[in-house]
Amino acid sequence: MPGPNCLILALLLLLGAAHTHAQGGCPTGCPAGQFQDPSCACYPCTTCPPGDLELSPCTATNDTACSPPTMQLLAAATPPGGVLHLTQDEFLGSFACGVALSGVSLTIVGRPGGGTTLNCAPDMGLRHFDLSGGATLTLVNLTLSGGTPTGPGGSVRAIEGSRLEATGVTFRGSTSGGPGGAVSLVMSEAVLTDCVFDGSVSSSGEGDAVSASGIAANLTVRGGIVDESAASGSSVVLEDGAVGTFLNVKFESRNVASTVTAGTYINNTGGGAVVIDTCLFLGELRFPGPAEKQRAYLGAPGGTPAVLRGAVVFADLWTPSGGLFAGSLVIEPTAVVTVAGGNGGTDAALTVPEGSFFNVSGRLEVQGAGGGAGGCLSVKAGGTLNVLPGGSVSASACTVDAGGQGAGLYVGGAFNVQRNAHLQVSQSSTFFGTGGGVLVAPGGSLSFSDPPYAGSFDFSGNTAAGQPSQLHISTGGTVDFGPGNALAANLAGDVFVEGGCGGDPIFTPSEIYGVVSAGSCPWRCMAGYALNQAPNTTKACLSLGGPAAPLFRNSTQAQAELFCAPGCMGSLVGDGTCHVECLSAQCAWDLLDCRGGDGFDWAAARSRVADSTVPGTVQGAPVPPAAARRDVLELIIRGDDNLDKTIDEHESAAAFKLSPEQHAAAAGGGGHLATA
User: Fold this and answer.
1) I need a labelling partner for 60 at 20 to 30 A (CA). Which of 79, 183, 244, 643 fits?
2) Rounded to whole angstroms, how far apart are CA atoms 409 and 398?
């Protein structure tokens, strides 16, 4: 049996073993502010350098864990909905990229004064930010560059109803393996304010700056600059119903050399709504080449039209074909859209393609050049351009290549100028081609008719090689000048009709209100209108007072008309001389010229309108029935006793013994018969 001394020694050994186990093999701990390493030595806890992050604090057995700041760590350390204020000038490589947010919101603000650059190292295969699950990311005063993911969105990818808000952010030099060289939106939203897109590339050619896809995708760009595409793709692409709004944005060439193919600025392939408000689309001053393609907008035929507002300018753009703006378009009443120095290649500077339309309520002013069909404007077969009331279209200083047609305007589809709207084509020329001003192609229709009104036009100063140059009407093309309209005197010998006038190639009477053509080609008027054949007057189709004509004009309205009734020019109304042909409600009953007075032959006037002696025509135009009615003329001459220019029921009864029913019939159903 062991002695007491042995037992005491064994107990001490056991107690020592227990203490060593408790201290991790070291006999004692370390003072505060130190940690003990595996060799049982004590060291001071590390203090992280300024700007570094403390990943974990110092403990009894572990030193403080520090790390240089990375965007991933900083984002993770910011509470959801919080704001991360960066103090660094730049983050490089993997420290700058790879931030993923899902279902949370985060705001990141760059360094005051100069901003912060997040520069992913080349070939890292990373983008800056990934948003999913309805996340919201707000970026302020940053530069995002160098992203190189294999998928979409070189800098930012937003999916699943997420939202990106960026203010004062520059997206530079990122390359994506799919849509969106800088930003990709799939069923998500982005509001980009005063941002710059510079030199990013989509390897798939789908939006070097931004790609938006899906019916819930919504892109808003306010201010800032968008670089042109460096390939044959587009700067911004909208797909599958995505919508876009561009306000005060400058689209320009920043990095593309003049010898490199450039793409479309906005490519709306999905037919979603697009609004372009007060934007500037700039190309380069250069000679056109076969590789160049710099279109402002390309929309899907038949898709939702782009809406242009404010001042929108397309300057020095080039495209091999299809026009600088292709797709359907609405120019709102306050808009002023200018195309300057554009070249449409084999087409006009602006082209309405088959299945598309332009509706112009504001001002559209075009100067440009083109190839075979149209220099400034071209409406393709199956396309339509409507100049709506208050709108105007001007094509000036336009040219078309040798053998081309319609330097100012080429009409292969339908071009309609409605009431109070105007078309001007001037100072345009073809080189060895046809139609220096306007060419109406086979099947094309140019119309100024908006019954009972007409739009207006001015063709002047246009030239074509060796033939009439203002208006060229091809066989099978039609022109409708509308009620009361006529070509100006300077166009009398400057209109060319292919095939002459044999067989009436331009119109049939049921299709038109007024037609003029070269040489002895006839005017023809539809039912309810008659050709004014008065000597020394402009030929025009004048209303016979049918349902399309107003029942009554006051003197101001009548005087404003070229012809207020067949044979009565508006300038004759109230000129001091009684014109029987002006005695109609449409001409304000010639104002007071036929009231009588010294030297007025009452008997002759009464005889002139007697039923048995009324001439069938006056200066070649039929006399309106109202002017042939004795009772109406007598009402005008002596029925208005109080000279208030109206005849009421009592005056009718006193002067002519008309019954109330007869007075109502003469007054057109009203209580008073207006005389002027």
Assistant:
1) 79
2) 9
d(CA 207, CA 184): 9
DSSP assignment of 55-120? EE---SS-PPEEE---HHHHHHHSPTT-EEE---SEEEGGGG--EEEES-EEEEEPPTTT-EEEEP
Please give the backbone phi and psi of residue 318, each rounded to the nearest 5 degrees, phi first: -135, 145
Query: For 434, which DSSP code?
Result: B
CB 179 within 8 A of CB 213: yes
What is the three-state SS of 363-401? Answer: EEEEEEEECCECCCEEECCCCEEEECCCCEEEEECCEEC
Joined together, the tokens standing for residue 586 give 């449409």
Q: What does the pLDDT read at residue 653?
A: 75
| DSSP assignment letter at 636 | I
Beta-bridge partners for 667: none
- For residue range 505-523, what is the model confidence (pLDDT) as tens digits? 333 222 233 333 333 454 4
Cβ burial of 485 (10 Å; 0-12, 13-18, 19+) is: buried
Q: Is 332 in contact with 362 (CB distance < 8 Å)?
A: yes
Task: Dump pLDDT digits (tens) for 439-496.
Answer: 888 889 998 877 667 788 888 888 877 566 788 888 788 887 766 565 554 554 567 7
Tokens of 456: 């207006």
CA distance 46 to 63: 6
Question: Cis (ω within 30 of 0) for the bond into 452?
Answer: yes
Tell me how far apart the alpha carbons of residues 391 and 336 are, in angstroms, rounded to a whole number.
10
Q: Which of 549, 506, 512, 507 is nearest to 527 (CA)?
A: 512
C-alpha dihedral over 428, 433, 438, 439, to 10 degrees? -170
What does the block give as tokens for 221?
A: 């760009």
Query: Using the 8-state DSSP alphabet, how is residue 489 labeled?
Result: G
Distant-in-sequence, close-in-space partners of 5: CB < 8 Å, separation ≥ 6: none
Q: Residues 458, 462, 467, 473: is their CA dihedral positive or negative? A: negative
Per-residue pLDDT for 131 more than 70?
A: yes
Token representation of residue 132: 């999913």
Instruction: Report phi then psi at 269, rounded to 5.
Output: -80, -15
With contact defined as beta carbons under 8 Å apart, do 313 and 338 qualify?
yes
Of 515, 514, 520, 472, whose CA–CA distance to 497 is shortest? 472
Q: Is-cis flag, bond preceding 69, omega within 30?
A: no
Report the alpha-carbon distance of residue 575 to residue 567 in Å, rounded. 15
What is the number of H-type helices and E-type strands within the chain? 7, 62
Q: For the purposes of burial, counting CB atoms within 10 Å of the CB of 7, is it exposed (0-12), middle (13-18) or buried (19 or more)?
A: exposed
Q: Let me know: does 344 contact 350? Beta carbons within 8 Å.
A: yes
- What is the rounded distance in angstroms from the CA atom of residue 196 to the CA atom of residue 210? 11
**Is the per-residue pLDDT at 635 higher than 50?**
no
Chain-centre distance for alpha carbon 307: 4
